[in-house]
Automatic annotation (TrEMBL):
Protein name as annotated: Cation transporter
Residue stretches making up the Cation efflux protein transmembrane domain: 47-237
Species of the source: Actinoallomurus iriomotensis
Residues of the Cation efflux protein cytoplasmic domain: 249-315
Keyword Hydrolase annotated: no
Length: 346
């Protein structure tokens, strides 16, 4: 059963000259996507710097991993490959998302970064599963591992990943792509720590299965990061409300504002990282100042929920007559299956 909210305010005499308002209003022209003022050009420079570090080290790590016969090093290189791919996807997506809206793409290509983030998440899940299988095989039948090579390469990887993490930490992490790349490199840093420990154990004790155990740690981190990306991008593609927002709370708050009778068809969704939209059908009490109420509701939404892209359709209550609005038939103005908020005080 849908929650219903109405205002407790008593109707007042109709005001003259009020008009039906259906507004699509990005309030105050607030920017989307760059929450702390980092420019897109600066983001690209930070991403390219991190990418150069990762690619150079990854190539060397594959060679050393083959020489040392270390699955942990090769799995680390695979993780770094996905990190590099995520940064490349982010760079391409940033370029596509910056294109202006045209033709049938009325929002432009702003969801390109969500597509790339989801692709990166799938890649992480696949690689994580492969490395889990290979690690299980090596736990049963472990090969000889050169612990000295493993330890030296892992310590170098820690330094490289610290530099790459620092570079990405300066970019705009409100973007799902940038944040995803940052988390991947951070996870890779933890993986190198595990690999270094494995190399030290092999050197000092001869326990070669430590390499496979470190590989399992790397694989679990990859699976965790991949699932997180799939979950977040899936919410966006399914047009779910951002996890930090509760539509019912927003609907109740809007319905409780002066001059508002009911709120129907409230929808909150995220087009892409940092670009949240809201639409609602608002029924007003007779005699309300439609323009003033619309502006007040938009200010409330922006101030309390940081949503700057709102579409509010205003009407008088169904069956009630108000100059400037006329009579409204609920069947034509509201989706009978959509959210419908009414205060119990009414």
């Amino acid at each position: 059963m849908a929650m219903v909210f109405t205002s407790s305010e008593e109707p007042r005499p109709p005001a003259h000259g009020e008009t039906h308002e259906h507004d699509h209003h990005p309030a105050h022209g607030a920017p989307h996507g760059h929450g702390h003022g980092v420019s897109a050009d600066a983001d690209r420079r930070y991403l390219i710097a991190a990418l150069a570090l990762l690619v150079a080290f990854m190539a060397g790590e594959v060679v050393v991993g083959v020489i040392a016969r270390s699955l942990a090093l090769i799995s680390d290189a695979g993780h770094m490959l996905t990190d590099s791919a995520s940064i490349m996807f982010a760079l391409v997506a940033m370029r596509l998302a910056a294109r202006p809206a045209r033709g049938g793409f009325t929002y432009g290509l702003k969801r390109a970064e969500i597509l790339s983030a989801q692709l990166n998440g799938v890649t992480l899940l696949v690689l994580g599963a492969v490395f889990c299988y290979e690690a299980a095989v090596r736990l049963v039948d472990p090969p000889e591992v050169e612990g000295r090579w493993v330890l030296t390469t892992a310590l170098t990887g820690i330094v490289i990943n610290l530099a790459a993490t620092w570079s990405l930490s300066r970019a705009d992490r409100s973007s799902l792509n940038v944040e995803g790349a940052f988390q991947h490199i951070l996870n890779d840093l933890f993986a190198f720590v595990a690999t270094a420990v494995a190399g030290l154990v092999v050197m000092t004790t001869g326990f070669v299965r430590a390499d496979a155990v470190a590989t399992l740690v790397v694989a679990v981190l990859m699976l965790k990061a991949g699932w997180g990306l799939i979950r977040e991008t899936g919410r966006i593609f399914l047009q779910a409300a951002p996890s930090a927002l509760v539509p019912g709370e927003i609907g109740a708050r809007l319905a409780g504002q002066p001059g508002v009778a009911e709120v129907h068809d409230l929808h909150v969704w995220e087009l892409t990282s940092g670009f949240i939209s809201l639409s609602a059908h608002v029924f007003l009490l007779p005699g309300g100042d439609a323009l003033g109420i619309r502006r007040r509701l938009q200010d409330l939404i922006e101030r309390n929920y940081q949503i700057t892209h709102t579409t509010l359709q205003l009407d008088c209550m169904p069956g009630e007559q108000d100059e400037g609005f006329g009579c409204v038939d609920m069947r034509h103005c509201a989706d009978p299956h959509g959210p419908h908020y009414r205060s119990p005080r009414r």
